[in-house]
Amino acid sequence: MSTQKTRHEYSRGALAESTAGQDPLRLFQKWFAAAKRSVLSEPCAAALATVAGSAPSVRYVLLRGADSRGFVFYTNYESRKARELERNPRAAMALWWETLERQVRIEGRVERVNEEESDAYFHSRPRSSRLSAWASPQSRVVSSRASLERKFREAKERFTGRDVPRPASWGGYRLLPSAIEFWQGRTHRLHDRFRFTRSAKGAWRRERLAP
Prior knowledge:
- By secondary structure, the chain is of the alpha+beta class.
- The chain is built from 6 helices and 9 strands, in the order H-H-E-E-E-E-H-E-E-H-H-H-E-E-E.
- The protein has helices at residues 17-20, 24-37, 80-87, 115-124, 127-135, 145-158; strands at residues 45-52, 55-62, 65-67, 70-76, 90-97, 102-112, 170-184, 192-198, 204-209.
- The two termini are 25 Å apart.
């Protein structure tokens, strides 16, 4: 495939020192709100990278919380990503919002959210999604699609007429950022990049990076 046919000129925005500010979490909230207002079908999609041993692995998760405490996603605690995070509680996350020509990269330590937060989010999900958390042994080998659907029917029958509780093996993680980078596409590949790094005392330092 010719690269000329796939090249795209970025020209929809700019990021200057005056608009980047000194608080990356505030800037993220501004960008995240804009992404949610855009025509993106899934603005919460985030690539999550983990490392166990010497090999990295990456997959998409849905960002379900972003505030001064960090960035939250949910999963099965017996999944591959969870097992890797238990062995090495550091991760990196990247979000790409094509319609805005923006990218955000986040790096830091990961910890489990408390049970109250996990319960609250779990009970906000559609009932079918809560049932699937009981039916799916995430990341494990299953014999067939039929066996997975059978487990779903069994969960549905098990909780007929009553609330679906959160499984003990399902809950959230919070990525506590030590570095956040904002990337805004610009013409001629002279993109705007700002990296914020956090000191041991919690203060943020901002630097402009070359594209």
